[in-house]
C-alpha cells in the first residue's frame, strides 16, 4: 500500500496548506479519500494519473472534505474519461453533484455511480478480489464515516526449487499456490508448506476523520496496521475539540494505543499552531509509532 | 480602478494556472467577478482582504467560473464575517449554494443575498453613489452575462486658492463642489468654473466572458475604457471557437475595435498554446492597445 497525502489541514484551503484529500494505492488500485477544494491541482502536483482513480470515498459533507469533488468530476469529462466512476459518500452527495451538472448544462461522458451511505453501523461498501472497504461510523457534527481498507491475503508463493526437485508439472502450480498438498505418482504426499512460501502479509489501513474521541470505533480497527486519525487540536484546546466534535493529538494516540495499531498517522491539523511537530510530541506521550501527515508526503506500508 | 486577475485560464485549474476570477477595485469598493475553484487561495496569495468583498458577480454556471464560490461563502463564515454579502448570478445559483450549506449542516453568520439573473436584456444590477453595474448579455452554451462597471462622475474639485481669494466661507464648499455659481455679499456672481477644477474623468470597465463573437454587445460597451474579452482560442481554431461558443483573439480584437474601446485585455486562454504572447500578436493585427491578463497581474486605469 502507498498512501499519498494531497491535503491534511482543517477548515479552509490556504496558500501552503490544503484541505483533506488522500490517495491510497493498493496493488495498483487507486482509491481517492475525501476531496477538498483544490484536490485536482494536488493530484497534478503529485503526478497521480487521473485515469487510474475509479473509486472516491467521501467521509462527510463538510466543505473541506468534498468541495473539490464537483470540479474533479467535471475535469474527468474534459479529459475524455470513459471508465465508470464510483462515488461513496453520505446521502445528499448525488443531489449536490447532479444539480451542478444540470445547471451548467453539463454531463459526464462516463458512467457516474453514486453509492449513498446512511447506515450507522459499519458496512462493506466495496469488494473485489484484492481489497475490501468497510465504513467506520464516526461521531461528528454531521453524518460521517471513516473507511477501513483491507487488503485480502494473496496466494501462497510457489517455491520453484522445491516443485522442480519433486518434478511436479506446471499444471499443478495454481493448486499448490491455493494451499493444497500434492500426491506424487509414487504415492508420496508432499505437504503444501514444503512447496510454498507464506504469502505477503495482508495490510490494512483505516482513515478516521473527522471525529470526536470515540471508542466505539475500536472493534472495527483492532490490530490495524496503519491508522490515520484526525488531530485537529492539541490537548490545550481539549474543550474546543469536544465542542466542535474533533479530537486532540493525545486522544488520537489513545485510540491508536487501545486499538493496538502498529502505526498512527496524524492529520487534519488546525493552522493555529506554530508547528505540526507539537502534535507528534503530544501523541508520543501515549503511543510511540507516530507519523505526521503533510501535504505531498507519501507513506509506504 | 484597479483590476487584479486571480485566474484567467479556461477549463480546469492546473498547477500554475487558475480558472476565471478577478477583483475590481473602484474607489475602495471591491467587486469579485467570477469565482473558479481555488479563488479563495488566489485572494490570499494576492493579499486581498476577504472582508472588503461585499459583491460577487458570476457570469455563468460553468464550473471554471463558479466552483470556488461555495468554498468562499463557507470561509467567510469561518472568518466570522458579519457584513452582508450579495451574489449576482444566473438563476439556480442560490439553490446550488443553499443545498450545500444545508447538507453540511452549515449556515452563514452574515446576511447572504442572492440576486438571480434571467433577463436577456441588459439591466442594472447594482448602483450606489459611486458605481453602476449593468449586465452585458453574452452568447454562450448556457445563460451568460458579462458585466459593465461604470464609475459615476464625481464632484468637481474645489480650487482652494480661488475660494480663499474670494473669502468664501467653508459652509459653501459643498454647494460649489456640486457645480453651483456663488453670489458674493457685494452682489458679484462668481461662476463655478472659476472656483473648481474638473472632476477626475469617470472610467468604465467591461468584463465579457464567456462568449462567442457577438456584435450585439457593441451598443452596451461603446467607447469603453477597458474591455476584458475572452479569447479562448487563436484564429487557427476558429471552428472550435464557433462550435464551443468561444472567441478567438482576433474576434476579441474586432469587438474592441468596433466598440471604439481604449484598451483590450485578453484572457480565458486555452492551455493548448505554447505562449499567451500568441494571443496578443494575433489581436494586434486588428487593434493596437492589447494587454494580456495573467494570474496575479494587476492593471490600474
From TrEMBL, chains A, B:
Cofactor(s) in the UniProt record: Zn(2+)
EC number: 3.1.26.11
Domain of life according to the entry: Bacteria
Catalytic machinery residues: 64 (proton acceptor)
UniProt keyword annotation of Cell cycle present: no
GO molecular function: 3'-tRNA processing endoribonuclease activity; zinc ion binding
Cofactor binding notes: Binds 2 Zn(2+) ions.
UniProt: Zn(2+) 1 binding residues: 60, 62, 140, 210
Positions bound to Zn(2+) 2: 64-65, 210, 268
Catalysed reactions, as listed in the record: Endonucleolytic cleavage of RNA, removing extra 3' nucleotides from tRNA precursor, generating 3' termini of tRNAs. A 3'-hydroxy group is left at the tRNA terminus and a 5'-phosphoryl group is left at the trailer molecule
RNA-binding as UniProt keyword: no
Entry keywords, A to Z: Endonuclease, Hydrolase, Metal-binding, Nuclease, tRNA processing, Zinc
Family the entry assigns: Belongs to the RNase Z family.
Quaternary context: Homodimer.
Function text: Zinc phosphodiesterase, which displays some tRNA 3'-processing endonuclease activity. Probably involved in tRNA maturation, by removing a 3'-trailer from precursor tRNA.
Full protein name: Ribonuclease Z
Native organism: Flavobacterium caseinilyticum
High-level lineage: Bacteria, Pseudomonadati, Bacteroidota, Flavobacteriia, Flavobacteriales
Protein encoded by which gene: rnz
